[in-house]
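can u pls check wat happens w/ thiamine diphosphate
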Amino acid sequence: MADLVSKGLTTCEGCGMELIARSILDVLGQNTIMLTPPSCSAILTGFGSETGWKVPAFQSNLENIAAYCSGISVALEHQNKTDINVVALAGDGGTVDIGLQALSGAVERGHKFIYVCYDNEAYMNTGIQRSGSTPVGAWTTTTPGGKKEPKKNIVEMLLAQGIPYVATASVGYIDDFKKKVAKAREIDGPAYIHTFSPCPPGWRAKPRDTIKIAKLAVDTNLFPLFEAIDGEVRVTRKVRKVASIKEYLELQGRFRNIRDEEVESLATDAENYYNKLLESEAK
Ligand SMILES: Cc1ncc(C[n+]2csc(CCOP(=O)(O)OP(=O)(O)O)c2C)c(N)n1
Ligand code: SF4
Ligand SMILES: [Mg+2]
């Protein structure tokens, strides 16, 4: 298989986002246009005449990547170019906060594009500021005592909007992610994949623990893996034995000062949400 992302990028050791980028193009191949907003994924799009992508790519603003996807998608339609994938690779801040209105608008208009959010749970590129996607108890430079508010659930927001395909994924289960990218390509409309993506420097974690942490997030039910086609939910990885949230938290320095009651609330919310997903699957 051709490697469509250059080697020797300046992403950090153990970066989840880079693995996501490589995996997207492993599945979709050459006939793909990649878009990135200001964020760590912009490292791949590059500066001036240098780029890490071996496919066409475009750098948007932070608030409007989905609007650019819409425009490119419509232009391709007008040219009868139906075999080209339009893909956004955006961070959590650029998705659940700053780019939300553009994403919601593009989904409402029903354009055909694939939006992959790599969720490293903070604004990493600008120095680890909290985002709407930062979980309770996590240290960031703007939540020195740990974040108080729960993580925003963008997937449920898009489900409520009636998006034809939405899924969660994790770099810990990369085959599951790749299957979802392949499904997203077949959807005649917007498709969104929210992907758990460890960031060793931002999480004060060891680079070698990236995959372990990404698996534990799923196996603790903190980040359940599922997809919904036309609103029909299917849990794609059933958790038979719930893993230890304590072990998950201890691998990351950002949770060093988390309080017992916050750990409890994370565990309770995780269990409730996972059960809710199983119930909607059964309907
Ligand atoms: C409207 C706007 N606000 C702020 C910025 C500055 N900025 C550039 S990258 C970035 C962080 C984006 O965070 P996220 O989307 O989570 O991606 P990550 O850095 O974590 O990869 C910010 C705040 C900007 N470019 N545009
Ligand atoms: S700061 Fe985090 S997301 Fe950004 S390149 Fe480094 S590991 Fe990847
Ligand atoms: Mg981020």
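The two ends are 40 Å apart (CA to CA).
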